[in-house]
Write a structure and sequence with these properties.
single chain, 593 residues, four-stranded mixed β-sheet, disordered N terminus
Length: 593
C-alpha cells in the first residue's frame, strides 16, 4: 500500500511543476516599457510576502551579458516586495530580468520581464527565468513530505489510541510507534537537506552545498523543520514512558502524561501549519488554528485506524470497550475534519468557479470524493462496532455465575472449577462482527492513504483564490503583462517617417494606462508636437474614444482610459511632426474581459 502511494505521488507530483501561492502583481519598470533614462533600482511587488534568495535577480544587458547588481532586499521594509540596485551607467537597448523568490507558504516562484532604455534592441536576449523546480528534486521533496504526513499520522494516532482507547495488550503497537518516529525523523532531515535545491530549482546533487544549507537553516521553512526536529527527542521520551505503562484497560493514564502528549501533538501539527498555505493569505490566525486541528484530527483518525487494525489482526481477543472508545474518538475526529475542511476549502477556493476552473479545485474535488468514501467506510465500521459491543454484552449476561466452593483443608485438591464459555451462537456472532470490523477498517486505512497522497499534492498547488488574485493582478511570467503595439507611419516627406510604440496596461476591459513612444527614422526617440490616440469598436458602434494623451517629456501618456467591453478594437494614432505635416495610421488590438 505504501509503495503504491509513493508511485502515485511520483506520477501526480511530477506531472507538472508545482504552483506557488505568491503571484507577481507589478514591476517597476513595467514590462515592455521604453525608458528615457536608466533606472537605479528594479522593484517587484507580489500578492503576499516572499523570501529572497542569493540569486533572486539575474539581469542581462542588450548583449546578453549578466550585470553585476546589488544584493536583493525588500523595498521600504515591505515583505511583499523585492528590490535590487542596478549599476550607475547602463547602455541603450533592451534588458531582460529573470527573478526568483520563495512564497510565504514555502513554494518557489519565478518569472521574467523586459524593459528598454532609449530604444528597444533589434534582438533581445531570450527570456529564461529558469525552471521553477528540478523534476528529480521536486519528486524527492514531495515523497519526503508525504512520508512526513504518513509518519505523523502513525505516530500521533497510535499514541492517542494507546492513551485514550486503552487496549489490554499494547505490545503490538510499539512497532508502529517506533516506525512513525524514525520515519518522521528521516523525512524531516531529508526535507531540510533538499530545501536549498528545491528553492533554487537545481538537482539533488547540490543538496550538500555548505552555503546553501546554511541559508536554509536561517530561513523560515528551515526554522520550521528545525523546530520539528527539536520536538522529536521529547516525543521519544514520552513514547518510552508510554511503553512502560501497565496493561489494565480500566486504568486511566495520568493527566500529566495526557497533557504532555497533547502539547507535543499540537507542536508537531503547528510545524505543518506554519510552513504551508495556512501561513499566507487571508485570516492567517484562524487558518493556522484550523490547519492544526485538521492535521490532529487526520492523525488521530487515520493513525488510530491503523492501530485498531493491528489490534484486530494480532490480538486473539478484542475488548469491546477499546473498540467502543475508539468509535467515539473517531466520531469527534471526523466532526473536526469536516468543519475545518469546509473552512479551508472555502479559504482556498474563493469561488464556486474555482472548483472546476483551477487545478486546486479539481484536486480538491478528488479529495472530497475520497473523503466521502472514507466516511462511508467509517459508517460501516461504526455499525460493526455497535454489533460487536452488543454481542459481547449479551455473551456476558448469558454466562453462568461462578459458585464459590470452599477449599478443602486436606486431602487431594478439588478438580478445577469449569469456566463459563460463550455459546456457539454468541461466539459466531462475535467473530462475524470482528471480521466485518477488520475489513471495514482496512478499507478506511487504504482510502486514507489515498487521501494523504492527494493532500500532499494539494499543498503544492496554487489555491483557487490565489489564482484569481494572480489573474486580476495580470502577473508577468515571461510574457508581456500589457498590450504592446507598434504602428509604423510615413508622412511622405524626407525624414518624416518612423513608428509609434503604444503600451496599453493591462490591455483588458476597464481602466487602463496608456503610454506612447515615438521613434524616428534612426530608431531613436523622437519628439513630436502632437500625438492623438483613439479607439473604435465598429461591431458595437462604440467610439471613437479619445485617450487624451499628454506630453510627459519624451513620451506621451494617459493615466486612466476606460475600455467598456471586450472585442477587437481599431486603434487610430495621429502623428503631427510639424505645423502642416501629420498622418493617421490604424491597427487592430484585441481587448479581453
Amino acid at each position: 500500500m505504501l509503495l503504491g502511494a509513493v508511485l502515485v505521488l511520483l506520477v501526480l507530483g511530477g506531472a507538472a511543476p508545482a504552483s506557488a501561492h505568491a503571484a507577481l502583481s507589478g514591476t517597476d519598470p513595467d514590462d515592455g516599457t521604453v525608458l528615457k533614462a536608466a533606472p537605479r533600482h528594479l522593484t517587484l511587488t507580489f500578492t503576499e510576502s516572499v523570501g529572497l534568495l542569493d540569486d533572486s535577480f539575474r539581469v542581462l544587458d542588450p548583449e546578453n551579458r549578466r550585470l553585476r547588481t546589488g544584493e536583493a532586499h525588500h523595498a521600504e521594509g515591505r515583505s511583499d516586495t523585492a528590490r535590487v540596485t542596478l549599476p550607475a551607467k547602463l547602455a541603450k537597448g533592451t534588458y531582460v530580468v529573470a527573478w526568483r523568490a520563495v512564497s510565504a507558504d514555502s513554494h518557489p516562484v519565478s518569472g521574467a520581464f523586459t524593459f528598454s532604455i532609449g530604444k528597444p534592441s533589434a534582438t533581445a536576449a531570450p527570456i529564461d527565468p529558469g525552471p521553477v523546480e528540478d523534476p528529480a528534486t521536486a519528486s524527492l521533496y514531495n515523497i519526503a513530505r508525504y512520508l512526513a504526513y504518513l509518519a505523523a499520522a502513525l505516530l500521533i494516532g497510535t499514541a492517542a489510541f494507546v492513551l485514550l482507547c486503552r487496549p489490554a495488550d499494547p505490545a503490538p503497537l510499539r512497532r508502529p510507534l517506533a516506525a512513525g518516529w524514525w520515519t518522521l525523523l528521516a523525512a524531516t532531515l531529508a526535507l531540510l537537506v533538499l530545501r536549498a535545491p528545491y528553492e533554487s530549482g537545481t538537482g539533488p546533487a547540490t543538496a550538500f552545498d555548505t552555503s546553501a544549507l546554511s541559508h536554509t537553516l536561517t530561513s523560515r521553512p528551515g526554522a520550521v523543520l528545525l523546530a520539528r526536529l527539536a520536538l522529536l527527542p521529547v516525543t521519544a521520551v514520552l513514547l518510552i514512558r508510554l511503553s512502560r505503562r501497565g496493561t489494565d484497560p480500566d486504568q486511566r493514564p495520568p493527566r500529566l502524561l495526557l497533557a504532555a502528549g497533547a502539547a507535543l501533538a499540537v507542536g508537531l501539527a503547528l510545524t505543518w501549519a506554519a510552513g504551508e498555505h495556512a501561513s499566507a493569505g487571508i485570516q492567517v490566525p484562524l487558518a493556522m488554528t484550523s490547519s492544526v486541528l485538521h492535521v490532529l484530527a487526520m492523525a488521530v483518525w487515520l493513525g488510530g485506524l491503523t492501530a485498531l487494525l493491528m489490534t484486530l489482526h494480532r490480538s486473539s481477543a478484542t475488548e469491546a470497550g477499546t473498540v467502543a472508545r475508539f468509535s467515539r474518538l473517531a466520531f469527534v475526529s471526523v466532526t473536526v475534519l469536516v468543519v475545518t475542511g469546509v473552512y479551508q476549502s472555502w479559504r482556498g477556493l474563493g469561488s464556486w468557479n474555482a472548483l472546476t476552473g483551477t487545478s486546486y479545485g479539481r484536486l480538491l474535488t478528488v479529495k472530497l470524493a475520497a473523503v466521502v468514501l472514507l466516511l462511508a467506510a467509517a459508517g460501516l465500521s461504526r455499525r460493526w462496532t455497535g454489533g460487536l459491543v452488543t454481542a459481547d454484552a449479551e455473551a456476558e449476561s448469558d454466562a453462568p455465575a461462578r459458585e464459590r466452593v470452599p477449599e478443602p483443608a486436606g486431602g487431594p485438591p478439588l478438580p478445577p472449577e469449569p469456566q463459563p464459555e460463550r455459546g456457539p451462537a454468541a461466539s459466531d456472532t462475535h467473530h462475524t462482527h470482528r471480521r466485518g470490523l477488520r475489513r471495514s477498517v482496512l478499507t478506511e486505512v487504504a482510502v486514507g492513504v489515498v487521501v494523504l497522497v492527494v493532500t500532499t499534492v494539494l499543498t503544492s498547488t496554487l489555491p483557487g483564490r490565489a489564482a484569481a488574485e494572480a489573474a486580476e493582478a495580470a502577473p508577468v511570467s515571461g510574457l508581456p503583462a500589457a498590450s504592446v503595439t507598434t504602428i509604423p507611419f510615413d508622412i511622405g516627406t524626407p525624414g518624416a517617417h518612423g513608428k509609434v510604440q503604444i503600451t496599453l496596461d493591462p490591455g483588458r476591459v476597464g481602466d487602463n494606462s496608456v503610454q506612447a513612444v515615438v521613434f524616428g527614422p534612426d530608431g531613436g526617440l523622437a519628439s513630436v508636437p502632437e500625438l492623438r490616440l483613439s479607439f473604435t469598436l465598429g461591431a458595437q458602434k462604440i467610439g471613437p474614444l479619445d485617450t487624451k494623451l499628454t506630453d510627459k517629456g519624451g513620451y506621451w501618456a494617459a493615466n486612466a482610459f476606460t475600455l467598456p467591453i471586450a472585442g477587437t478594437w481599431t486603434m487610430k494614432a495621429t502623428v503631427r511632426v510639424s505645423e502642416v505635416d501629420q498622418v493617421s495610421v490604424t491597427k487592430t488590438v484585441r481587448i479581453v474581459g
